[in-house]
Amino acid sequence: MNMELANRLPSLKLVVFDFDGVFTDNAVYVNQEGVESVRCHRSDGLGLSRIRKCGIETIIISTETNPVVLARAEKLKMEALHGIEEKGSALSAEVEKRGLSWDQVAFVGNDINDIPCLERVGLPVVVADAYDEVRPLAKLILKRKGGEGAVREFCDLIWNARKGKKETNNE
Amino acid sequence: MNMELANRLPSLKLVVFDFDGVFTDNAVYVNQEGVESVRCHRSDGLGLSRIRKCGIETIIISTETNPVVLARAEKLKMEALHGIEEKGSALSAEVEKRGLSWDQVAFVGNDINDIPCLERVGLPVVVADAYDEVRPLAKLILKRKGGEGAVREFCDLIWNARKGKKETNNE
Amino acid sequence: MNMELANRLPSLKLVVFDFDGVFTDNAVYVNQEGVESVRCHRSDGLGLSRIRKCGIETIIISTETNPVVLARAEKLKMEALHGIEEKGSALSAEVEKRGLSWDQVAFVGNDINDIPCLERVGLPVVVADAYDEVRPLAKLILKRKGGEGAVREFCDLIWNARKGKKETNNE
Amino acid sequence: MNMELANRLPSLKLVVFDFDGVFTDNAVYVNQEGVESVRCHRSDGLGLSRIRKCGIETIIISTETNPVVLARAEKLKMEALHGIEEKGSALSAEVEKRGLSWDQVAFVGNDINDIPCLERVGLPVVVADAYDEVRPLAKLILKRKGGEGAVREFCDLIWNARKGKKETNNE
């Protein structure tokens, strides 16, 4: 892990996630009545609950209009904004509301509509299979693909960085 | 990109897609009551909306009788003809109705029932995992498989070609 | 293609298929109410309809009790026996009922409960990802996996073999 | 197979499984109404029924609260405890209830919440794609991934080991 990442991870206060392509493999299952489903990864829940115990807040911001985003967020006990056309402004509002500086915020995305968010935050992150246009914006490219435990991987990095921090504090 | 492709992309007025194997991975999910679902890719929507903003029309023509085709098309705000036995004639009717020449039309397919369409259009395209029988008919073989962002990939090619065109026009 | 296979394909009158692991990838999707779904391949339908036009009969014989087998069979316009504990006896009854010899019958399977059928028929076939125990029984191992177009692949082999036969007859 | 494994397999009386990531690929499918589905492998059923015929008991212990665990367990005719926060204590209670020693128990898991169980049992087992943190605890790492026949693979190992035992006994 490079030094910048090692420095940023322990001071995070808010982690914001895109939904499709991050919590999912960017697929949508559609049935003949138009009902949508998505494929998520069970392992994400354990990672999210661990970082929340450290006092880190987690939100989903998605352009997708279908309520499937809310269904998954509810299971994960996360706040979610969906149907958001301008993700950048929505993110700014959330950061301001909490009185945070951009250095305390990470965003995890995968596609071009995440660019305004990736450009704003102190720690921009993309999944392993993110689109080429957004990869250069990331300070961290995860090893796992969206929907294959990418969320868990990032939570584990934060968890381990904070553990190290605490151990150092205790010395 | 070869010269012919570079020339054809900017002049497209109509892009016609097969459904199964192009918007999907050619799988169908069947439940015990016979209800069908398909697995599509979220990224396709963004690509389609960008080329429509350039004034390009997009249609789906499918032999599949199940209304799942219409359910996905509705979400993507696309016109769709389904249950079409003779895809070639249906395509001809659509082209004629719009007063277009074949040079202004692309078709994206994957299987042998797409042959009549691939033979007619100026720009025949197939997905990465198209059947061997249809590959020789294509002037463009996409890098992505059906249901894995193949539609988005083709839309991005058109978008980038037109951007180049505009920039040239503005000079 | 070896000589024996080339000889057997054109004389087939009945093709019998296992369901799970042949028409599907051997997965079952279960929802929280216990409703089951399976993942099939759209391409199979086209292959099956072509060989039926040649007068070849097609049946599914499955041990699975869930009616999802029947739901898929109905879409494919195939006869299906499901919940069959003794596949071998069920197959024998079907062959006898039609007055066929075993040389005119192929069976496509993937797992150990297919052994009695694979041992009986003139042309035993398994999918690419069949279990090790059954592979030695097969005279033909398909290139495609179950649920990934294996049924279509076998139908295409029969279709091409019969086309050759007709062309020879016409000379 | 190493000697310890060869010795332990024939004396097993109870096999306990985690659910998500063992019976499934650790994915969860969520629809827009919040209904959850999981993807299991048909082949597991045949393996489980064979070892039960040998008098081995099989249970699922899962932290997951969704009843989809029970839906799959019912189909497989297995007892299942779900929504279990402390898997270790739950496992101890089951072993005590049956009057077994830890040498007669195997546990199959994939993630860190399985650690208390993997540490207790005589034969700790993990699937091919288990998390790094739990792999060192396993005496057996299966070749197959969760949801891809890992349960079947372990059942087949037990079945084959007991067959050998019986043959030896008969001599």
Mean pLDDT score of chain A: 94
Uncertain segments of chain A are: none
Question: Structural class of the secondary elements of chain A?
Answer: alpha/beta
Q: Which strands sit side by side, in order, in the main sheet of chain A?
A: 5-4-1-6-7-8
What general form of chain A does the structure show? globular
Number of strands of chain A: 8
CATH fold naming of chain A: Rossmann fold
Going by CATH, the architecture of chain A would be 3-Layer(aba) Sandwich
Oligomerization = homotetramer
Total helices of chain A: the number is 6
Alpha-carbon distance between the two ends of chain A: 23 Å
Describe what this molecule looks like in 3D.
With 171 residues, chain A is an alpha/beta fold. Chain A has helices at 3-8, 43-53, 68-75, 87-97, 115-120, 150-170; strands at residues 14-17, 27-31, 36-41, 57-61, 79-81, 105-109, 123-126, 140-141. In chain A, the strands form 2 sheets. In chain A, strands 5-4-1-6-7-8 form a 6-stranded parallel β-sheet, with helices on both faces. A two-stranded antiparallel sheet of chain A has the order 2-3. The longest helix of chain A has 21 residues, at 150-170. Chain A starts with a helix and ends with a helix. The mean pLDDT of chain A is 94. Chains in contact: A-B, A-D, B-C, C-D. The A-B interface holds A 20-21, 24, 26-34, 36-37, 64, 111-113, 131 and B 29, 35-43, 46, 66-68, 71-72, 74-75, 147, 149.
